[in-house]
């Protein structure tokens, strides 16, 4: 099991060191394993903080969250509870973030821009940078940029290198994000219905927490495979239809009598 210092734990859980300490003081988070004067946290702490954060976003107070966690732990094996916590909160992507310097980001967004010309281009650069951060392509991390999903970032870089404008890339990314949110909602609704989780208040009394965790874990690869398979089919069908129509229109515009082979330049 991985070990994290408090600042690493806070960063991975997308919270602050102050919040981590507050959770500990309220009894929501078990104490770390001490080695000398340094505390080390593990994946169970990370899962717990993510659950707390998710519940806070849904409007639960820290007091009610504490009661819920206590009910779970008193009625179930802690391993079962943490199993559900992990499967609900751990990232679905196994990607590790990458990091870029400011100069590398400038080169990607404005290739060939020399440093002395940057001042004149900065009004154009910073709005593009802000939208990239808003869409989740990059985010500030001290004196450099973090790329949360290198795979997604590379798609944007490749499109830009192929001549697609950043505005167009951002627009389609925003639309795709909304489409993916709709798809995700459908899979979540399926999981909630299949696991009979319509009433979250009854979760603490459930005796089948391991089965619930396994069901949700199975939905991850199945959901991704279904999306990839259907997207491949739709791309094939729609690209074929779009380009075949345009080719037919192009052929219709050609002269009716066109030589099948090019004329030999040397012939008379």
From TrEMBL:
<keyword id="KW-0238">DNA-binding</keyword>
<dbReference type="InterPro" id="IPR000551">
    <property type="entry name" value="MerR-type_HTH_dom"/>
</dbReference>
<dbReference type="GO" id="GO:0003677">
    <property type="term" value="F:DNA binding"/>
</dbReference>
<dbReference type="GO" id="GO:0003700">
    <property type="term" value="F:DNA-binding transcription factor activity"/>
</dbReference>
<dbReference type="InterPro" id="IPR047057">
    <property type="entry name" value="MerR_fam"/>
</dbReference>
<feature type="domain" description="HTH merR-type">
    <location>
        <begin position="3"/>
        <end position="71"/>
    </location>
</feature>
<dbReference type="InterPro" id="IPR009061">
    <property type="entry name" value="DNA-bd_dom_put_sf"/>
</dbReference>
<protein>
    <submittedName>
        <fullName>MerR family transcriptional regulator</fullName>
    </submittedName>
</protein>
<dbReference type="Pfam" id="PF13411">
    <property type="entry name" value="MerR_1"/>
</dbReference>
């Amino acid at each position: 099991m991985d070990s994290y210092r408090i600042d690493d734990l806070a960063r991975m859980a997308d919270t602050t060191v102050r919040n981590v300490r507050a959770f500990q003081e309220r009894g929501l988070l078990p104490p770390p394993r001490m080695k000398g004067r340094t505390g080390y946290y593990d994946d169970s702490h990370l899962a717990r903080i993510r659950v707390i954060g998710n519940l806070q976003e849904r409007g639960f107070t820290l007091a009610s969250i504490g009661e819920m966690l206590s009910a779970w732990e008193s009625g179930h094996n802690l391993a079962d509870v943490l199993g559900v916590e992990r499967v609900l909160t751990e990232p679905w992507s196994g990607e590790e973030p990458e990091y870029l310097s400011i100069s590398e980001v400038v080169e990607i967004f404005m290739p060939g821009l020399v440093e002395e010309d940057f001042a004149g281009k900065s009004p154009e650069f910073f709005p593009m940078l802000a939208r990239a951060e808003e869409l989740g392509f990059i985010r500030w991390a001290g004196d450099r940029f973090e790329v949360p999903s290198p795979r997604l970032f590379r798609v944007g870089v490749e499109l830009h290198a192929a001549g697609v404008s950043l505005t167009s890339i951002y627009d389609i990314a925003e639309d795709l994000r909304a489409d993916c949110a709709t798809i995700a909602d459908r899979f979540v609704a399926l999981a909630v219905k299949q696991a009979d989780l319509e009433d979250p208040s009854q979760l603490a009394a459930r005796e089948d927490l391991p089965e619930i965790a396994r069901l949700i874990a199975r939905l991850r690869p199945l959901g991704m495979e279904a999306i990839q398979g259907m997207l491949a089919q739709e791309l094939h069908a729609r690209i074929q239809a779009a380009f075949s129509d345009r080719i037919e229109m192009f052929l219709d515009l050609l002269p009716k009598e066109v030589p099948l082979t090019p004329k030999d330049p040397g012939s008379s």
